[in-house]
Amino acid sequence: MSILIDSQSRILVQGLTGKEATFHAGKMLEYGTRLVAGVTPGKGGQRHLGLPVYNTVEEAVKSEEPDVSIIFVPPLVGAEAIMEAAEAGLKLIVCITEGIPVLDMLRVKSWLKRYQASLIGPNTPGLISPGQSKVGIMPGHIHRPGPVGIISRSGTLTYEAVQQLTAVGLGQSTAIGIGGDPITGLKFAELLELFRNDSQTEAVVLIGEIGGSAEEEAADYLKTSSYPKPVLAYIAGITAPAGKRLGHAGAIIEGGQGSAGEKIERLKAAGVKIIDNPARIGLITAEVLSVKN
Amino acid sequence: MSILIDSQSRILVQGLTGKEATFHAGKMLEYGTRLVAGVTPGKGGQRHLGLPVYNTVEEAVKSEEPDVSIIFVPPLVGAEAIMEAAEAGLKLIVCITEGIPVLDMLRVKSWLKRYQASLIGPNTPGLISPGQSKVGIMPGHIHRPGPVGIISRSGTLTYEAVQQLTAVGLGQSTAIGIGGDPITGLKFAELLELFRNDSQTEAVVLIGEIGGSAEEEAADYLKTSSYPKPVLAYIAGITAPAGKRLGHAGAIIEGGQGSAGEKIERLKAAGVKIIDNPARIGLITAEVLSVKN
Amino acid sequence: MLIHEFQAKEFLRRLDVNIPEGRLAATPAEAIQAARELASPVVLKAQVLAGGRGKAGGILRADNPEEAQKLAAGLLGSHLATAQTGGQGLPVFRLLVEKAIQPKKEFYVGLCVDRKNENLAVLASSRGGIEIEQLSASCPESVKKIGFYPDEGLKLFEARRLAYFLKLEESSVRDFVHLLQKLTRFFIDHDLKLLEINPLALTADGKLTALDARMEFDDCSLPRHPELAALRDESQENELEREARKYGLNYIKMDGQIGCLVNGAGLAMATMDIVKHFGGRPANFLDIGGGVTEEAVSRAFEILLSDDQVISALINIFGGIVRCDLVARGVVKAAHSRSLKKPVVVRLEGTNVAEGRKILEDSGLPFTFALDFERAARLAVELSGVRI
Amino acid sequence: MLIHEFQAKEFLRRLDVNIPEGRLAATPAEAIQAARELASPVVLKAQVLAGGRGKAGGILRADNPEEAQKLAAGLLGSHLATAQTGGQGLPVFRLLVEKAIQPKKEFYVGLCVDRKNENLAVLASSRGGIEIEQLSASCPESVKKIGFYPDEGLKLFEARRLAYFLKLEESSVRDFVHLLQKLTRFFIDHDLKLLEINPLALTADGKLTALDARMEFDDCSLPRHPELAALRDESQENELEREARKYGLNYIKMDGQIGCLVNGAGLAMATMDIVKHFGGRPANFLDIGGGVTEEAVSRAFEILLSDDQVISALINIFGGIVRCDLVARGVVKAAHSRSLKKPVVVRLEGTNVAEGRKILEDSGLPFTFALDFERAARLAVELSGVRI
Predict the structure, then answer these.
(1) Do the beta carbons of residue B117 and residue B93 sit within 8 Å?
(2) In this predicted model, what pLDDT tens digit does every residue of A124-133 receive, in sequence order?
(3) Within this chain, do residues A113 and A194 fall inside the same structural domain, yes or no?
(4) Of B87, B120, B153, which residue constitutes the final position of a domain?
(5) By CA distance, what is C157's nearest residue in A?
(6) Is the separation of the CB atoms in B159 and B281 below 8 Å?
(7) Does B237 touch chain C (CB under 8 A)?
């Protein structure tokens, strides 16, 4: 199986004709992702990368019936793009854009409730179900289909984890970047719930980091859900100083909240296997899975 | 039984110390309604009509555990009062205030969705479950407990209907004014659904009027719900000219929509017994009930 | 509260929305002066608070200043009866004299409160110049509606969607989106109930220009917009209705013979309806309201009696908050001052009914009492000369 | 982006929020002049972008102008190290000289983005003057929080609830509600992330006065608030961090010996963590980002090397969008220009890894290659002099 996307997923690219989108849409097509259309206001009627371009998401939905949208637009119109996708009926929206103002994201979250749409990101590399569909900007070739689900707040660190897993012979069911911003769409807990019901997934690796409380919420979820699969976690930022923003807008210890140590304690107490050396994500996951099987 | 309120209902009065509220709270107490507290910002700690007064609804809820609030405040703070009541956890809010701006009411309706609170009104005489509780400004003495549920957009016309029913020996389970404004809380359809499940109620009388589409929605509801009890309706305003507001802010035929004739046709098609003479509401209801029994 | 086209356009001008160059003229001399200043063919537009002016002859084109003067002389001081005004029409005290504009295309744009969906709606159509109700009925696919909430406002993508629906060229899409943003902001900030630009013209130079504008404010919100209250034009109201409003009465003049005085809007409508049910014709809607004074009741009854069409009167009071004795005293006072000659049927019910009845009986005036609603209505109809 | 107290107070002044009368002083002479004009005991407040100034000696009282001058001379030009600044502290270039105020009571009022609840929050406490984190930890019942949404704003009843929680007298309730309305409006309109008034004083004459003010704007939103960008004070940033920011690099100086150059924030944190895991101490966080240029990589490596505490360096690149050859060229350029002597461990992975490695090898510079993440980290730690 996999979660959220598979080989049947029909993908729309918002902002398709932009430079970054053009590059990554090309890579997605190479990977075999079913891109069906693009949207760029004012360029409706053109074709780009062989795909039809529409002025509005509504028109694209009517003609091409996509079920997932991936967004590459400038940050100040990012919130609008997400809202437009949700309103047009897309149930999964992946926002790559970095730098969307935080108040805009609060408005987006309220908006999404009205439409039962799921958001991945913003400021995310996207997600991939190896061998089926890549909806994001991650290097496709390092992935293999397999039993490990990955949920991560990071980009390159996820690639690192994926490569380690692939190197020890463990493929991935779906690998998802939830995004590095303070306010994001789906987080660890909701995605754990999806992996729970996915037959392909045998273990889930969480890659968290300082800031916010997504990891703590995951711990609360796991504590009360008798989760049937092993969950492992690496939390980045054990060396991070308080009050400093480490690259990601969301990676900051504020008012004493959101430290890596606190997150690790909470996850450990919820039965999660903590990985304290980020170079051993692959090895430790393999150990856990071999013990289980 | 009865719906929404009964002898156990604990009532809070927002704006209790005002002139109108004082008068009507007195009448409600005379009727036997269980008023438990009042709220007037700045008068917290005082007593009024023997009731404790609080500064905020939150405090009143904490101390007196009301489950219904009735609101008598000036129109420009009416929306705030409703929101405060919903936010404090009250599940039924009755707003007597007339003249709340329509954009305020749109905001209120969005707000209420978040709290699963039901609103009656604004610009309503309130509601009464005869012999049990009167939460409103209607003359209590004309009511009798009995089998007829009443839902009305009007005030004095409802009193007229009640008196006619009482005169022919038919009491009322609950009589509810839904309010004469363009945007109101519960409307005919939702209240019909409540009467459906009320064992005391054997028939429901709707008193509608020109403007809006609440009657049409009731017709749509009845058409698809195999409603188990007879429903009768009188629609006021068959003589109303288009484009003129007849007293109630909501009673206006706009853009050819909302005429009494249209409403009557729709209700008739949904199996509702139409009463075309407002002086015969009591008699016709008695006929329908005697045929049924 | 409706405002005049020229007032609405002044708001648009302040929002930097394009409007035709124009002048207000209250006399033919001002009209010729305006036409000269505008130095081109002009349009004279009667400023009355009703739609349908074009078909009713309230919008006229003048090719030169002299023609403008002549046409203005005909319009000013006249009454303009449109499909929306009723028979007598509304007095024309001012004309808006505007440079005539030749649009390439005309659109409809409207914002309103959507009662059914409990939000705001923006409507647009590529068939401007036609009433929206007519358009929605005859050609619904030419109208697109988008709902939005006052706290959220209209999103850019929603405005863009309408622009593409109208098949605007890319250069106009941005202007249109910008226009809608300004209109929705204004609508929300000023508590409007209706804002229409019809037609919105696309001119030869590619500009979007508001050729007409209609704005209605929410009366309930006027206390928080004191600057708006001054825009009310009482000359456009029926004299009796205006007089009634001063006393907090809801009075609407109609064309029948039976004057009705009632407390409560629903009961007032029902009273009109039952009059019609028995073959009579109501002369008015009149709700004296809940917080009425004796003085206001007296004025209400005077207003009712001062309508020459009224043959008989029907007083129907279900006293709750309103006390029957108060109503009776007001009625007697008015009846005396107008030396009442018309037959009056009275039905009193509720609070202080005995006192009320006694006051009426003791007045020595020719009131006819009825015990219930139906008998009261039948009597009033019969007394108006209709045989039941 | 944090702004200074005096800048935040200027915003408050424009909102008609009471603030103490004050002057900005950049020299002791200006300080004495300010104290004379204020004609009363004054408070001198060091303008540095960090909290905890009071305890660190950055807020001083002067009873007369001469004392003000003397204290100003001590503060101006010095570095102020508070609990929030780290060891070196921040330079004091300006003082806010304010009339000393004797409050009857002090409150805390703060607005912030609530990540967990995904809305905005207003917090209030009757124990002003203390850091809110401390207060929440030591005395949670003294803090009340109310959440609200940016599109809806704070409702009056919510503001009133806070006022009653603070046990304000009725005369101050209205002022407080009014104050909160202004602050929330400002917060939302200007895309703030944090706004604190701490303490908010109730003075003897019953006025609510902001004795201190802290505002942080959302960097992401600055492009739509061009007027705010000018408020940035670069003097308050670490020189290397400021230099890095110019090139779009995320660099945070720390106190270790191993310089790290990484692409991606998560991998950069993980690289610091693994260094610590093997007993080393990272000298910095450095994420070169996804859209980096050769020039920026070169500057990044120069910045890293210019830190005298750095003994060894660790370059960890997982090429995706970033190409290894581009990074290699930038690194070689910097190494040449700084005549590299420190040991540098390199781990390259992903896009164009072979080309990158070749460029490094051909440079003739002393790079040590490691095949994977763990070996790279161990080597760098060992080369920094730690025995594993």
Answers:
(1) yes
(2) 999 999 999 9
(3) no
(4) B120
(5) A84
(6) no
(7) yes
Four-way CATH pick for C105-228: 1.10.3720.10, 3.30.470.20, 3.40.50.2300, 3.30.43.10:
3.30.470.20
All CATH 3.30.470.20 domain ranges in chain C, comma separated: 105-228
Q: Which chain A residues touch D220 with a CB distance below 8 Å? A: 75, 99-102, 249
Which of C152, C157, C170 faces A56 most closely, judged by CB atoms? C157
Residue of A nearest to C155 (CA): A80
Domain that holds residue A250: 138-292
Radius of gyration of chain B (CA): 18
Share of chain D above pLDDT 90, in %: 82
Closest C-alpha among D15, D4, D11 to residue D227: D11
Find the closest chain D residue to A153 by CA distance. D266
Q: What angle do CA D51, D54, D57 make, to 5 degrees?
A: 115
- Residue D54: CB partners within 8 Å, gap ≥ 6? none
Which CATH number does the domain C22-99 belong to among 3.30.1490.20, 3.40.190.10, 1.10.443.10, 3.40.190.150? 3.30.1490.20
Query: pLDDT tens digits for C8-40?
Result: 999 999 999 999 999 999 999 999 999 999 998
Q: Do C152 and A107 touch (CB under 8 A)?
A: yes
Say yes or no: A86 and A183 in one domain: no
**C231-283: per-residue pLDDT in tens?**
999 888 888 888 998 998 999 999 899 999 999 999 999 999 999 999 999 99
Name every residue whose Cβ is closer than 8 Å to that of residue B5 and which is 6 or more positions away in sequence: B68, B92, B127, B128, B129, B132, B133, B135, B174
Our count of domains for chain A comes to 2
D39 and B CB contact within 8 Å = no
Which residue from D264, D273, D377 is facing A239, i.e. has the nearest CB?
Answer: D273
The CATH architecture annotation of domain D238-383 reads 3-Layer(aba) Sandwich (3.40)
ipTM score here?
0.94
**Min Cα–Cα distance to chain D from C32, Å:** 48
Q: Where are the alpha helices (DSSP H) in chain D?
A: 5-14, 28-38, 65-75, 132-138, 156-165, 170-189, 226-229, 239-246, 265-277, 294-305, 324-337, 353-362, 373-383
According to CATH, where is 3.30.1490.20 located in chain C?
22-99
Would you state the structure tokens that stand for residue D134, as one six-digit string?
Answer: 């401390």
Is residue A26 in some structural domain? yes
How far is the C-alpha of B151 from the C-alpha of B207, rounded, in Å? 6
* Cβ pair D132:A182 closer than 8 A: no
- Looking at chain C, the domain(s) classified CATH 3.40.50.261 span 238-383
The number of angstroms, rounded, from the C-alpha of A244 to the middle of its chain's C-alpha atoms is 24
Mean pLDDT of all residues in chain B? 96
C365 closest CA partner among C384, C386, C346? C346
Of the listed ranges A113-127, B85-99, B240-254, C36-50, the least confidently predicted one is B240-254
Asked if B107 is an interface residue toward chain D (Cβ–Cβ < 8 A), one would say yes
Say how many CB pairs under 8 Å bridge A and D: 166
Query: Are residue A237 and residue A181 in the same domain, yes or no?
Result: yes
The tokens of D346 are what? 């390199």
pLDDT per residue of chain A (293 residues) written in tens, 0 to 9? 899 999 999 999 999 999 999 999 999 999 999 999 999 999 999 999 999 999 999 999 999 999 999 999 999 999 999 999 999 999 999 999 999 999 999 999 999 999 989 999 999 999 999 999 999 999 999 999 999 999 999 999 999 999 999 999 999 999 999 999 999 999 999 999 999 999 999 999 999 999 999 999 999 999 999 999 999 999 999 999 888 888 898 888 887 789 999 999 999 999 999 999 999 999 999 999 998 77
CB contact under 8 A, A239 and D276: yes
**Do A143 and A283 share a structural domain?**
yes
Same domain assignment for residues A21 and A68: yes
Mutate to test the interface with C, among B83, B234, B239 (most CBs of C within 10 A): B239
